[in-house]
Amino acid sequence: MEQPLKVFIISDSVGETGEHVAKAAISQFRPMLQQVDLRKFAHIDTVEHVKNIVKIAKQQQALIIYTLVRQEMRAYMEQVAAEEQLAAIDVLGPIMHAVQRVTSESPKEEPGLVYQLDDGYFKKIEAIEFAVKYDDGKDPRGILKADIVLIGVSRTSKTPLSQYLAHKKLKVANIPLVPEVEPPEELYMMDPHKCFGLVISKEKLHSIRRERLLALGLRDDASYATDARIEAEIAHFQKVVERIGCDVIDVTNKAVEETANDILQRRRMR
Question: Are residues 182 and 212 in the same domain?
C-alpha cells in the first residue's frame, strides 16, 4: 500500500506555480495523485508566517515546495527547514539567480507580477467569453466576428479546441454540421482562410459515440452511432467544406494541443 504523502505549497502570491510544479513531479510517481494531500499557503509575506507553517509541516512530516520571490524570505525558509530536518524545494530561487547572472539585472522581488492585469489578460478573457457565447452554433452571427471558425460533425473536439485557442487570445466560433440542418449562410460569407474543418475516421467516431451513449446509460445501437448515420454526416461535412473551400484537419487520434498547433501553424503561413 502506498504511503500517504503530505505536501505543503508556500507562496507569497496565489501559489499556482508551486501547485503546478508539485503535481507535475508527483504525478511521475502517482499519476492520479492518489494518497497525496496538497495544502496551499498563499500570500505568505512574513518570516513569522513561514516559521509557523514549518512547525506544522514538522508535525505532519510534510514535504515543502515554496515559491518566494524575496531573497530574505527564501533564505529564512531554507534555514528553518534545515533546522527542522525537512525537505524543502525552492522553485524560483535557482531560476532567478541564473537570470540575474546572465543579464546582470536585479530582480524586483515583487510577489504576483506574473498575474498583473495587462492588455493581454483582458484579451484572453474576452476570447474565452467569445468562445462560450458562440459555442456549438448558438449564434451564427459570431462566424463573421471570429478569428477562427471550426466546423465538423459531433464529437470532433470543437468545444475544447475553441477553449484552448481562446487561451491563445483568439476568438473562436464553432459550428456543428448535421444533414438535417442547413448550415448558416455566414459560413459562405466569411473568409475561407479562417475556417477549419475537423474530420475524423469513421471507426474512431463510431467508437467515441458508442462510449458516449453507454456513459449516458443509453443503448449503444442508437442511430447516433450507426455506420449509416456516421457516413451520412461525414458526406454532408465534405459537401459543406468543399463549398466553403476551407482547410480540413484530420483529428483522428490527435490531442487537442496537436490540432491547435496545426491550426496556428497554418495561420502563420498565410
Answer: yes
